[in-house]
Design a protein that fits this description.
Helix content: 40-55%
Strand content: 5-15%
Number of helices: 10
CATH topology of the largest domain: Rossmann fold
Strand order of the largest sheet: 2-1-3-4
CATH superfamily of the largest domain: Nitrogenase molybdenum iron protein domain
Shape: globular
Radius of gyration: 21 Å
CATH architecture of the largest domain: 3-Layer(aba) Sandwich
Number of strands: 8
Largest sheet: 4 strands, parallel
Distance between the termini: 67 Å
Order of helices and strands: HEHEHEHEHHEHEHEHEH
Bound molecules: zinc ion
CATH class of the largest domain: Alpha Beta
Structural class: alpha/beta
Length: 304
């Protein structure tokens, strides 16, 4: 009986093949994948190239990633040079005309996002990897709204017959996001103006949206490892300004943050930009933001 059903299913799939074909979408990072999943639902198949715990600036460009890009109908990139160190090389080797820049299959998530910290003069000599502005814009939920719309428009261009479904999913996601944003803002409201230290400058947009000042970093420049001299300055500033929270992404050196925390009576908070990097955030962008707002507010409340 089971075999019979299987054969019927296989026949049906063969007959209806093209109509059932899912859009094969590859995103660079898991945050983009989680938003694409909200829009595409079961009409797309989805792979993220970077792992949730991987540094998005320095992804291991394994040959298996080339194969994924080779078979994809579309690639979603964060842009603002976030993937500049690894994606162009992978795309070159994948030789997939569907993903060429300027085609509907090359989706730039950052389109229309108001990027911050765009340098007035381009100077990479000191190792700053945020050469086109700060690329960690998805930590502001309002930017997630823009990204969701960009992805929806791109899916409509690639798969017009499912456009109504993509638009309905977009509305559902943005409605949920709007409701949550009000909740998150209320939760962080009591801490408005408080200063927070971050290891890497990936929390600027989060801080700006929720009224926190996140402008002291353990790295002297984005992508440049901390030096004893720089850390001594940060410790001094933390004591002066009474800063008691340090944010660390999973791919950075937590021990350095712990050393600084021990000298400043601070709490180290594990944060992540990517769903699944921290237990309990696997379900997507909104659960990840829930975790971030809760853990940051808890740390700020504990050290008043
Ligand atoms: Zn960065």
């Amino acid at each position: 009986m089971k075999t019979k059903i299987l054969i019927s299913l296989l026949l049906l799939t063969a007959l209806c093949g093209p109509a059932w074909a899912k859009l094969n979408v590859v995103s660079t990072t898991p945050d983009l994948a989680s938003i694409a999943a909200e829009i595409g639902g079961d009409r797309i198949s989805l792979t993220a190239l970077a792992k949730p715990t991987e540094d998005p600036h320095f992804v291991d460009a394994k040959p298996s990633l080339i194969l994924k890009l080779n078979r994809a109908d579309a690639v979603i990139e964060g842009g603002a040079e976030l993937e500049t160190g690894w994606l162009p090389r992978l795309l070159d080797q994948a030789r997939n005309a569907k993903l060429a820049a300027g085609t509907p299959g090359h989706i730039s998530a950052a389109r229309g996002v108001p990027l911050k910290e765009i340098p007035t003069s381009l100077d990479r000599s000191q190792g700053d990897i945020h050469a086109a502005g700060n690329p960690h814009y998805l930590m502001d939920p309002l930017n997630a709204r823009i990204v969701a719309r960009n992805i929806c428009e791109a899916f409509c261009a690639l798969d017009a017959k499912s456009c109504d479904a993509y638009r309905a999913n977009l509305k559902q996601f943005t409605d949920a996001l709007d409701a949550k944003l009000a909740e998150w803002q209320k939760k962080l409201e009591p801490f408005k103006g408080r200063e927070v230290v971050a290891y890497h400058n990936s929390w600027l947009y989060f801080g700006d949206r929720f009224g926190l000042k996140i402008d002291l970093f353990l790295e002297p420049k984005p992508g440049v490892p901390p030096t004893p001299r720089h850390l001594a300055g940060i410790i001094l500033k933390m004591k002066e300004d009474k800063v008691h929270v340090i944010l660390v992404d999973p791919y950075l050196d937590r021990r350095t943050a712990e050393t600084v925390a021990a000298k400043t009576d601070a709490t180290v908070v594990d944060v992540a930009q990517f769903p699944g990097a921290i237990k309990g955030t696997e379900a997507g962008y909104i659960p990840l933001m829930d975790y971030l707002v809760n853990s940051v507010s808890k740390a700020l409340a504990g050290n008043k």
